[in-house]
């Protein structure tokens, strides 16, 4: 149901994620035992576009359980910091870092609202500020988010976003072939569906949440207005879950349209840099 942004949206969203964090940690969807054994949850295009992180510092905003955050440490980042507003999610991320033998000097996690990141994280700036995979839809004000994210990018560093494409939110669920929703809608999507994408049958109590749709132009404009230089905006024909029934699972764990079928972008990625001077 679409409607005005509720006054308690942050409280409701945090309660929803707090309840779901332990469900996700125990789920086959996240498969933490496989992650601890070496599985890399980062997507091929992310690793290619971010490039070599060896010796660099990386801040992951809205990191959830920290699997992607810790994966960047595995790929050589000198220090990774993950931030999420859910205490149970951050607790899980800290435990995973301990199990991987990564001390606070290599992997630190902070529980805070993303808009308060500048005051909450241990370092004033990072070589790479990273976010994505269903993060921006939980924020009503992208200009505020972009100003915060940009303020944490060190000179010579960059912001990297890998997100679900907003076009998928306006297409019909079964096939992705018809436009059924308004691409430019700015109302909040208020949902109270029980369960979670990682366990559809999970018994949950805190089900009310609010999400927002952000067209590509809004994202690019917010990042540019925050003082970063747009390096690229790429669109991708893959996604991380079966968004439409017609999508087919791939060997790398992603989903794509079948061969020969018309395609639309399912994800996008954006890189924006801060010049050294």
Jot down its keywords.
Rossmann fold; three-stranded antiparallel β-sheet; 2-polyprenyl-6-hydroxyphenol methylase activity; 277 residues; alpha/beta; seven-stranded mixed β-sheet; globular; 13 strands
Describe it.
- The chain has 277 residues and is of the alpha/beta class.
- It has a single domain (2-273), classed as Rossmann fold (3-Layer(aba) Sandwich), CATH 3.40.50.
- Helices cover 27% and strands 23% of the residues.
- It contains 8 helices and 13 strands.
- A hairpin with a 5-residue loop joins β11 (248-249) and β12 (255-256).
- The chain is globular, with a radius of gyration of 18 Å.
- The relative contact order is 0.16.
Task: Provide a brief overview of the structure.
The protein is α/β, with parallel strands linked by helices and 277 residues long.
Q: What's the SSE blueprint?
A:
Blueprint: E1 2-3, H1 9-25, H2 32-36, H3 44-50, E2 57-61, H4 67-74, E3 79-84, H5 87-99, E4 107-111, H6 117-120, E5 126-132, H7 142-151, E6 153-164, E7 188-191, E8 209-211, H8 216-225, E9 229-236, E10 238-239, E11 248-249, E12 255-256, E13 267-273
Parallel strand pairs: 2-3, 2-5, 3-4, 5-6
Antiparallel strand pairs: 1-7, 6-13, 7-8, 9-13, 10-12, 11-12
Helix pairs in contact: 1-5, 7-8
Strands in their spatial order, largest beta sheet:
4-3-2-5-6-13-9
Strand content: 15-25%
| CATH architectural designation | 3-Layer(aba) Sandwich
> Could you name the CATH class?
Alpha Beta
Mean pLDDT: 96
Which structural class best describes the helix and strand composition?
alpha/beta
Quick one: biggest sheet?
7 strands, mixed
Please count the helical segments.
8
The gross shape turns out to be: globular
Poorly predicted residue ranges: none
């Amino acid at each position: 149901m679409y409607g005005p942004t509720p006054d308690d949206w942050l409280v409701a969203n945090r309660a929803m994620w707090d309840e779901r964090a332990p469900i996700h940690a125990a789920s086959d969807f996240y498969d933490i035992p496989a992650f601890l054994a070496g599985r890399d949850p980062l997507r091929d295009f992310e690793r290619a576009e971010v490039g070599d992180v060896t010796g660099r510092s990386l801040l992951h905003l809205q990191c959830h359980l920290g699997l992607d955050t810790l994966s960047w440490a595995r790929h050589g980042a000198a220090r990774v910091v993950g931030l999420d507003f859910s205490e149970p999610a951050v607790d899980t991320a800290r435990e995973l870092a301990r199990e991987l033998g990564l001390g606070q000097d290599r992997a630190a996690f902070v529980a805070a609202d993303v808009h308060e990141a500048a005051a909450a994280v241990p370092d004033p700036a990072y070589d790479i500020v990273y976010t994505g995979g269903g993060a921006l839809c939980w924020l009503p004000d992208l200009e505020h988010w972009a100003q915060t994210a940009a303020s944490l990018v060190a000179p010579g560093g960059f912001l990297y976003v890998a997100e679900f494409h907003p076009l998928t939110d306006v297409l019909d669920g079964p096939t992705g072939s018809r436009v059924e929703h308004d691409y430019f809608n700015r109302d909040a999507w208020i949902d109270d569906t029980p369960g979670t994408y990682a366990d559809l049958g999970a018994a949950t109590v805190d089900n009310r949440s609010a999400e927002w749709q952000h067209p590509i132009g809004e994202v690019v404009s917010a990042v540019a207005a925050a003082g970063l230089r747009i390096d690229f905006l790429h669109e991708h024909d893959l996604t991380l879950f079966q968004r439409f029934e017609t999508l087919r699972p791939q060997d790398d764990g992603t989903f794509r349209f079948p061969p020969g079928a018309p395609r639309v972008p399912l994800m996008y990625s954006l890189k924006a840099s801060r010049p050294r001077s």
